[in-house]
Amino acid sequence: MAPSTLTALAAEKTLNPSFVRCQDERPKVAYNEFSNEIPVISLAGIDDVGGKRAEICKKIVEACEDWGIFQVVDHGVDAKLISDMTRLATEFFALPPEEKLKFDMSGGKKGGFIVSSHLQGEVVKDWREIVTYFSYPKQSRDYSRWPDKPEGWMEVTKEYSDQLIGVACKLLEVLSEAMGLEKEALTEACVDMDQKIVVNYYPKCPQPDLTLGLKRHTDPGTITLLLQDQVGGLQATKDNGKTWITVQPIEGAFVVNLGDHGHYLSNGRFKNADHQAVVNSNSSRLSIATFQNPAPEATVYPLKIREGEKPVLEEPIPFSEMYRRKMSKDLELARLKKLANEKHQDSEKAKLDTKPIEEILA
Questions:
Q1: Nearest CA to 111 among 136, 86, 76?
Q2: Taking 80 as the threshold, does the pLDDT of residue 1 lie above it?
């Protein structure tokens, strides 16, 4: 069972076993061994149709075809708003456990605070605390699940939510045009766009080489905008996990990840970013992920199939079903992996038990 908060565990000298990952899942690259491979794109002039827009769009499309991940600067989101959002989030996680647990979202509650993840049946826990806001559609917001401490955080989050959805829609317009579609095509494919903000807090970890802050995954939705502090820990791979890079933090920038939905709508042309988060023993880390997802009833299927290509999906399915299948598959694969690992350990122990003491000590 997951602990209620990580406050006590972060002070221990050894890692709680529920967070220990298999050898092949553990970090291979340090949290602060930064790479400049991920493109950094300025959005200044993106609305200038006769000017810089074409050049900016070209860079975005190339990044989506190569990595499915890039960083944006000059995005128009107010710098003070970003600073306030980060400051207030940091203050929330510094509150005593009992204050954070007033917004406990376990048991299927729609938003609030939890350790690791809201998913039931996780085999290994992620080393993080999170606050989740279900922020769009606006009419479905439940403000009773939005923390009221620190003072002012709720109002700042409302404004942050509105500004981020504007940036996301602008980026989706670019990808729509790149596919030869009307610029509203990807946004309209979402039906009534859903937005979820997840504030991640990764405390200092006693044995960071044994765990992850967030396990390897692709985001299920359309597009994600991530704000991260300067500590470092976001990692990406484009060769199925053979090599990893740590994304260079840039003050005030958003890391943009394309998700599974965006990948399928483009018929696989744009990659769904394969990423994870690592932790460290020196300092805590904060990141804020804003997920732009389609409505549950939205149809998932390529919007355009180029000549000579086959569709990446056999048939259209609702996003809710795509999401359910993805989560079920991820949990089942993790369960089977754990069973195989335990079987291997038992086998090795049995071999050891039958060896003469002289061989064991040799």
A1: 136
A2: no
